[in-house]
Amino acid sequence: MPLMIVRNDITKMEVDAIVNAANPTLLGGGGVDGCIHRAAGPALLAECRTLGGCMTGDAKLTGGYNLPCTYVIHTVGPVWQGGGCGEEEALTSCYTRALTLAQEKGCETVAFPLISAGVYGYPKDQALTVATKAIGRFLESYDMTVYLVIFDRAAFAAAGSRFPEIQQYIDDRYVAAHASTARRDMAREMPEILGFPPRAPIMRPDVATEECAAPFSTPKRTPKAKSSSAGRATPDTGKSLEERLKHLDESFSQMLLRLIDAKGMTDAQCYKKANIHRKLFSKIRSDPYYRASKPTVLAFAVALELTLEETRELLMRAGFALSPASKFDLIVEYFITRGDYDIFAINEALFAFDQSLLGGC
């Protein structure tokens, strides 16, 4: 764990294994296949010649040779024929078989391209959904860090057309938030336009008008009456910093662990569902005052299926808040308000809108 969507060149990923979207012959080709063969060198092709090809939906493993990885796992994706010819099942099998081979070899990190989304014609948004679902299901049972490498984000359709309801939700709130900010700014600068009473003129010693003819002077301070403090203690007087800190509310870490117990979840169930690495979770568990990032806090809110109010409270414990001026916040809020706690679906939407992803640490 976890699954991370990144923009990179897969031939430069320093992982245990990279996955090659190969053709059935395994003898190289165009796109990702050609790039991997060129980067690995001729020894990769020589080993591929001994494998006897590969069936659609299956996978085979070779060495990495000149690549910065130990293994290359070759898998053959389906050619898109409209979606009614078993394409989704075959594509799901590609990810499952490749991950199984990686797990059998003890790989801890694996990088995938978006299989079949190139010359094989699988619609990129649908290919991404199949990939995240298949990888997510596998990671429910195994600890592994998986990278889904997207070389060219511009190849994806505009986020607004892929997620029109989310776009509308953002527009309704994001625009309103900025309109309110603009209205406040205008009220400060030009109050009469919005019907507010004009601000009182500022008195300056070098600018006198008939309306403000009184000479400029500094108001005299009224001396404070002395108060008798005998026999009375000022609040908190005598309390040390250590004593005051004892009265702080529970921290993010403490609240998180309490909620996990309240939901009847195990630690592993929670961090896997949150798309969080177990090493990070161990740090949070061992340190009551661990300072988590906002994506990490929201990932746990999703894993625990918190309501919006509960999510706000958990964020507050970590020093954060949801803002209507943040697209990232609004997208996560959209899913929570609808009771959709599929973290991979949320991350697909965040990726489409070019926002940070949940979990992934």
Biggest pleated sheet? 6 strands, mixed
Over the alpha carbons, how many angstroms does the gyration radius reach?
29 Å
Query: Distance between termini?
Result: 9 Å
The helix fraction, in percent, is 40-55%
Order of helices and strands: EEHHEEHEHEHHHHHHHHHH
Task: Report the strand count.
Answer: 6
**Overall mean pLDDT:** 83
Strand content: 5-15%
Q: Which spans have pLDDT < 50 for at least 5 consecutive residues?
A: 189-235
Q: Helix- and strand-based class?
A: alpha/beta
Q: Spatial order of the strands in the main sheet?
A: 1-6-5-2-4-3
Number of helices: 14
Tell me, briefly, the overall form.
globular
Structural features, described:
With 361 residues, the chain is an alpha/beta fold. The chain is built from 14 helices and six strands. The protein has helices spanning 31-40, 42-48, 87-104, 124-139, 159-162, 164-189, 241-245, 252-262, 267-273, 278-286, 294-303, 308-317, 327-337, 343-352, and strands at residues 3-6, 17-22, 59-63, 71-76, 109-112, 145-149. It has a six-stranded mixed β-sheet, with helices on both faces. Helix 4 (124-139) links the parallel strand 5 and strand 6. Helix 11 packs antiparallel against helix 12. The longest helix has 26 residues, at 164-189. The N and C termini lie close together (9 Å). Residues 189-235 have low confidence and may be disordered.
